[in-house]
From TrEMBL:
Its EC number is 2.7.1.56. It comes from Deinococcus aerophilus. InterPro entries: 1-PFruKinase, Carboh/pur_kinase_PfkB_CS, PfkB_dom, Ribokinase-like, Tagatose/fructose_Pkinase. The keyword ATP-binding applies. Belongs to the carbohydrate kinase PfkB family. Residues 21-301 form the Carbohydrate kinase PfkB domain. Gene3D superfamilies: 3.40.1190.20. This is 1-phosphofructokinase.
Length: 326
């Protein structure tokens, strides 16, 4: 879409997946159902973030652990989008994730299979690869679940290591891995959970916007630079410094919700690269997410369409209740 950025982003996907997306409108549990279409995409949260960034025109390197038995779909994606492949190949096949898309109801059901068990030698090789990437990458994205063989503190240790080296770090994970990061002494620059993931990681419900804001601001006080809490159709809350805004998307025809959060991360990183303020960053991140849900697979529409989405996003200053449109 544009010339590549001179300061590349590196994304880490320790537990990638081949996403089998099946469209079966009106499918019923426990019955024989007819599907209308299917496609197989190389995926995993960090892979998706990298694909969206490449579509936007940024230079991006994708790394992680990749099963050598079925790496072809990933390699084809990297070639097609001009992404640098820095994955460590491991014996076996990368897991498959099944996405059942009901276009009529605009709902997606995910079935995530377990990944390949990571061995100590593979993890050592991966950490060496990250050390190499630190030589010429300024921004790192740690995204997705952890496979068997990787302890919950893995991301927390990487965050501390990367930030000590002066790198900008974004994190998008859940479960025990997110809990470990949020309990650590060093937090990522950008944290993007959805509301349920944040509640689970903190071990308490966040029943009001004031409680979500308080939780986000506590993370900022402890060293994060931005917290983005996505809440589906309600939009997302973005908190940074003394500012907090809510971005509300327009209604669009949803093809699949797979990758919507990954697109939001990519939008925030592109906004960071362009030095955008919080309101404009929220608007762009939401436009990226809208672009993702109107397509199957990790693909952004042309910039003209993204700009049109951005113009329809309503951004509200949470503190003052002042809306900013377009």
């Amino acid at each position: 879409m544009t010339a590549a950025s001179p300061a590349p982003v590196a994304t880490l996907t320790v537990n990638p997946a081949l996403d089998l997306t099946v469209r079966a409108d009106g499918w019923r549990r426990g019955e024989v159902n007819s599907g209308q279409a299917f496609q197989l995409d190389a995926g995993g949260k960090g892979v998706n973030v990298a694909a969206f960034l490449a579509d936007w025109g940024m230079a991006v390197t994708a790394t992680g652990l990749l099963g050598e038995d079925n790496a072809q779909a990933f390699e084809a994606l990297f070639r097609a989008k001009g992404m640098r492949d820095a994955f460590v190949r491991v014996p076996g096949a990368t897991r498959v994730g099944i996405k059942l898309v009901d276009g009529a109801a605009q709902q997606t059901t995910d079935i995530n299979l377990p990944g390949l068990a990571a061995t100590a030698p593979a993890l050592q090789q991966l950490e060496g690869r990250l050390d190499d990437l630190m030589a010429d990458h300024t921004t790192f994205v740690l995204a997705g679940s952890l496979p068997p063989g990787v302890d919950a503190g893995f991301y927390a240790r990487l965050v501390a290591r990367l930030r000590a080296a002066g790198r900008f770090v974004a994190l998008d994970t859940s479960g025990a891995a997110l809990s470990a990061v949020l309990a650590a002494n060093v937090l990522p620059d950008v944290i993007k959970p959805n509301l349920q993931e944040l509640e689970a990681a903190l071990g308490r419900p966040l029943d009001s916007e004031a409680q979500v804001l308080a939780a986000a601001r506590d993370l900022l006080r402890r060293g994060a630079h931005m917290v983005a809490v996505s809440q589906g159709e309600r939009g997302a809350l973005f908190v940074s410094g003394g500012e907090a805004v809510r971005a509300r998307p327009p209604r669009v025809k949803v093809q699949s919700t797979v990758g919507a959060g990954d697109a939001m991360v990519a939008g925030l990183l592109s906004a960071h690269a362009d030095g955008l303020g919080l309101a404009d960053a929220a608007r762009r991140a939401t436009a990226f997410s809208l672009g993702a849900v109107t397509r199957l697979g990790a693909h952004l529409p042309p910039r003209t369409e993204l700009d049109a989405f951005a113009a329809q996003v309503t951004v509200e200053d949470v503190r003052e209740g002042v809306e900013q449109r377009g």
